[in-house]
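Worked example 3 (structure in, sequence out).
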């Protein structure tokens, strides 16, 4: 198994600057201990729109970048010996990354750790930030324009969101109509992350050939990780991240690819968020190395 890190340097999905720099900064950090293959896909040099009343701002530019990222992801993931870790960038980079795995393996599941639901549509978004349409696009709930390069979406019934909070009524309706299972920050506090992740893997492993995992830095409360473009408060701390990585390690033979997104170094304080982000990615690299030792494992589900 060959671990490849792909730097997806885009922040076209949000009006705030900084997430693109997050990918660059983390790659520089990782080079200190990761000696494997690192590839970069730089965002086109454009001027972003900040018109909050425009519900489709940067749609063309984002689609152009994501179509290029999709082609690169498909190329890398078509080789079964590759385990690709994609580092964004804002959350929109996870659209082509996850859909590339769908293209390659056909039947896949999705686990997405995030503080925001990322399940808006062009009609329900409040600020026009395309990142808020991320998971709804991946799972085929409207927003078809944002996945024109891969019309077939990951099945909503094989997708799980963990950690979301501050959901609007429209977002709750979207999730219900789509049929995506989600667990809020309050659910984590009441049920425990281990129980929730066990339920999540039962869902995403059912009749699938692989699982894509995505982690947005918004999962962690900004009290502990202030380097986030759109913070979501609710008390989830970095200790949960350690537990999550330990559980992912146990399931690493089922995981086919991994994304990290949403770190904004321009909003960080004393590099607190950066350190958490590096620890998260280092844990996934460790898990990927363990996957290499396992070799190809026959699926249990």
């Amino acid at each position: 198994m060959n671990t490849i890190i792909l730097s997806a340097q885009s922040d076209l999905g949000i009006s705030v600057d900084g997430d693109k720099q997050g990918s660059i900064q983390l790659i520089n950090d990782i080079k200190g201990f990761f000696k494997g293959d690192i590839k970069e896909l730089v965002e086109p040099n454009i001027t972003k729109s900040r018109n909050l009343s425009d519900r489709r701002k940067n749609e063309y530019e984002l689609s152009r970048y994501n179509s290029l990222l999709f082609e690169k992801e498909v190329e890398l993931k078509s080789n079964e010996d590759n385990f690709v870790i994609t580092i964004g960038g804002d959350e929109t980079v996870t659209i082509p990354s996850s859909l590339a795995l769908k293209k390659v393996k056909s039947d896949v599941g999705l686990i997405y750790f995030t503080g925001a639901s990322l399940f808006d549509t062009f009609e329900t978004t409040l600020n026009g930030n395309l990142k808020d349409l991320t998971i709804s696009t991946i799972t085929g709930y409207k927003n078809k324009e944002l996945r024109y390069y891969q019309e077939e979406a990951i099945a909503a019934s094989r997708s799980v969101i963990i950690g979301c909070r501050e959901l609007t009524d429209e977002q709750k309706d979207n999730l219900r109509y789509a049929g995506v299972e989600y667990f809020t920050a309050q659910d984590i506090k009441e049920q425990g992350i281990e129980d929730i992740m066990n339920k999540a893997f039962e869902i995403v492993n059912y009749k699938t050939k692989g699982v894509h995992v995505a982690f947005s830095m918004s999962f962690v409360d900004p009290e502990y990780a202030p380097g986030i473009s759109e913070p979501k408060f609710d008390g989830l701390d970095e200790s949960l991240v350690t537990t999550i990585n330990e559980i992912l390690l146990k399931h690493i033979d089922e995981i086919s690819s991994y994304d990290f997104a949403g770190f904004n170094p321009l909003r960080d304080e004393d590099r607190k968020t950066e350190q958490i982000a590096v620890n998260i990615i280092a844990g996934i690299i460790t898990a990927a190395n363990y996957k290499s030792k396992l070799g190809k494992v026959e699926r249990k589900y």
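Notes: The chain has one domain: 2-294. The radius of gyration is 17 Å.
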